[in-house]
Write a structure and sequence with these properties.
231 residues, alpha/beta, 8-stranded mixed sheet, 3-stranded mixed sheet, globular
């Protein structure tokens, strides 16, 4: 039987607000798992798939280098962007309107306890979504995320990933460029990689995409791959 997962779309949400809301859900789930273990109970843990978009923001992961942000405070202000150091894996990335930012808050004990398989499965959902639009995508050996032309000098990233996992509960997730303003990536060394391009569905197809349509396809692939029932 497929595991029930609550799907929520927060819409355009301030990054700090979204982070706080994620932390609250994540902490509740971890606390429930701890209680189950210490009190020998078996209360089912909840699972969530959250989509949203953010106003222009740069986030730096735990292993990231601050110098990969190429703007000072005035530069951030001029670009109407904010900057946060956060507790996910990975280096620096950009979030903004026209980008699907996905936060699966899943208890992997309900699915599979393998963080690498978790990342590969999220990547596969994005790859299948792109295939629905005739875009051939794949993986770049040694890097997370989803790439186009990963086997040659035209390699460019279309989806970045960075997650946190504690007691097999996940948070943070992926950033999928649909109609994102790619100019904002020029103000950082994206994911710490200074010799690779970044792209979007809009750039590849030469037209603006219907965000809701892309979300529907993406969440459908996620649900099928993880054998989940979205409610």
């Amino acid at each position: 039987m497929n595991k029930k997962v609550k799907y929520i779309d927060w819409g355009l949400t301030d990054y700090q607000e979204a982070w706080d809301r994620q932390e609250a859900v994540f902490n509740e789930t971890v606390a429930l798992k701890t209680k189950n273990r210490t009190e020998n109970t078996a209360v089912e843990t909840p699972n969530y798939l959250i989509f949203n978009e953010h106003p222009h923001v740069y986030t730096l992961g735990k292993s990231g280098k601050p110098e990969n942000l190429l703007l000072d405070e005035q530069g951030l202000s001029d670009k109407q962007a904010t900057y946060y150091k956060i507790n996910r894996g990975g280096d620096i990335t950009y979030h903004g309107p026209g980008q699907i930012v996905g936060y699966p808050i899943l208890d992997l004990d309900n699915f599979f306890t393998d963080i690498h398989l978790y990342l590969r499965t999220l990547e596969e959902a994005v790859i299948l979504t792109l295939a629905d639009y005739g875009i051939a995508a794949g993986r770049y050996e040694g890097y997370t995320g989803v790439w186009l032309d990963a086997d040659n000098e035209k390699a460019r990233k279309i989806c970045a990933m960075g997650v946190r996992c504690s007691r097999w509960v996940t948070m943070h997730g992926f950033a999928f460029n649909v109609n994102a303003d790619l100019a904002y990536f020029k103000n950082i060394v994206p994911c710490g990689i200074d010799d690779k391009d970044v792209t979007s569905m809009q750039r590849e197809l030469g037209r603006e995409l219907d965000m809701e349509e892309v979300k529907t396809k993406l969440k459908g692939h996620i649900a099928k791959l993880f054998e989940m029932e979205l409610v």
